[in-house]
Specification:
Structural class: alpha+beta
Strand content: 5-15%
Organism: Stylosanthes scabra
Keywords: ATP-binding, Nucleotide-binding
Low-confidence stretches: 1-19, 333-354, 356-367
Distance between the termini: 51 Å
CATH topology of the largest domain: Transferase(Phosphotransferase), domain 1
InterPro entries: At_inactive_RLKs, Kinase-like_dom_sf, Prot_kinase_dom, Protein_kinase_ATP_BS, Ser-Thr/Tyr_kinase_cat_dom
Number of helices: 10
Pfam families: PK_Tyr_Ser-Thr (PF07714)
Number of domains: 2
Order of helices and strands: EHEHEEEHEEHHEEHHHHH
Mean pLDDT: 80
Largest sheet: 7 strands, antiparallel
CATH superfamily of the largest domain: Transferase(Phosphotransferase) domain 1
Protein name: Protein kinase domain-containing protein
CATH class of the largest domain: Mainly Alpha
CATH architecture of the largest domain: Orthogonal Bundle
Length: 367
Amino acid sequence: MIVCMYEKNDENALPVEAKKKEVPLKKQSSDSQETQDKNKIVFFEGCKLAFDLEDLLRASAEILGKGTFGTTYKASLDENTTVVVKRLKEVTVGKREFEQQMEIVGRIKHENVDALRAYYYSKEEKLIVYDFYQQGSVSALLHGRRGEGRIPLDWESRLRIAIGAARGIAHIHAQHGGKLVHGNIKASNIFLNSQGYGCVSDIGLAILMSPIPPPATRAAGYRAPEVTDTRKSTHASDVYAFGVLLLELLTGKSPVPVAGSEEVMHLVRWVNSVVREEWTAEVFDVELLRYPNIEEEMVEMLQIGMACASRIPDQRPKMTEVVRMMEEIRHVNTGNAPSTESRSEVSTPTNYALDMMMMASTSVPPQ
């Protein structure tokens, strides 16, 4: 039995109540039966799912979102099996290159990386299958409409999300001889694992797609300034995107449009401008003000976020260094959730983080 994800790549982070619309996946597939028989679904080792393409296309499906790389569905194969299916669009590579990338991603096994369970490739149809996470994405948790059962994320939850996502990205960067890049890090691609830590999804799809001009994607708020071709993302641009995500967790403000809000800002520039004016306390999400004794931790996390989001790629820390700095704030080890009881003392911000924050704040031009 797999109980997996609810909202994949939903850039607008609409609450599930607003998007329940069942659609037959089969209607949108133009593959012939001969093609379907020739191109079987490929399952990865450790996946306990068992279905064929016809089962998947007949499944009761709910559109969860239309994002940069395609449309995402919640598919119920039976009463005990729910998966997320992403129907990819604008795939420009051939079958061999597509399969090679899927094999690289499919081999990743880490508690902070959303496992790719299966994929299907044919001339007319490209599908990938993930787990379904009932809680939804971090974007939905942060920016979902008030008054519809949304519970504000407390500081402990945001720390777990940030630390888990950092661990996941660091692990991704170590794969394939250190050549693997995520390429699309954003709050709508981060979910919560069973321990409440961030879990990174949608890995390595950017290089398979048509290049998207910078103004044309709704994920532009996470994109590093040096990236002009989405297929040429780097470890450093992933670090920048993580920095934006961390600032989003700290401020409660989204760098991309979200449902129910017309507020869209250049989050990195705004944070830098506030810090330059020495109004740092004004940066933090008002929902965090109710929690005592977290100011120092928030400032330290802010320093890390600003260092990651430096305009100059060489000034950004590596993800392994980011993980180390974040874990030092709470003195946590892998697998240990941070808790109030473990916070007997707060570590002093590293000189590295402080230096990087100053570089970041002085290298961003005014808006």
